[in-house]
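anyone seen this seq b4? input:
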Amino acid sequence: MNILLLCDRKSSYDDVQMSVAVQDAFQRSGHEVHQIVLNREEFSPCVGCFGCWLKTPGVCAITNDAANGIAAKAISSDAIVLLSEITYGGFSADVKAYLDRSVQNILPLFTMYKGEMHHPMRYERFPIWIAVGYGDVSDAEKQTFTLLADRNALNMRPERYLSLAVRNCEDFSTQAERMLQVLEVSA
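predicted toks r here
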């Protein structure tokens, strides 16, 4: 399976090493992993122009950074894994900057989905979505993170998704099997 690992800058620091732990778990199971370290300073912020919906469907009108290329890689992957430090219960600034710019992967219309109003899918399928939040945070922040990640998954409508919150690499190793099972169920 072709997996795109989108991680924040902190996840690869020597003292954190979360990106290494996540990538190793996939590779040991025979999956191909392409890792991109997201850096909010390398993305122009979304200006809310809706050009990606109306003028250049599926492509952000801002073309002087890497957002369009990453969005194309994401849609063509079998699975997307977001690796984010949990920040006040949400995604890190690096991951959030990319997510803001990935609105191009849904349509501007509205439809009912699971009893709620959501945007329809732009593409026939959305890759499996796995969000892994990490950090020494409270249980309430972990719960907020998993709820937020689940709601993001609901908007994108992947066939399968999983959201987990872990403290560190050791804690992740006890949860890695759950992550791999999400991939295998759909294979």
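The chain has a mean pLDDT of 91. The radius of gyration is 16 Å. kinda curious what u guys think
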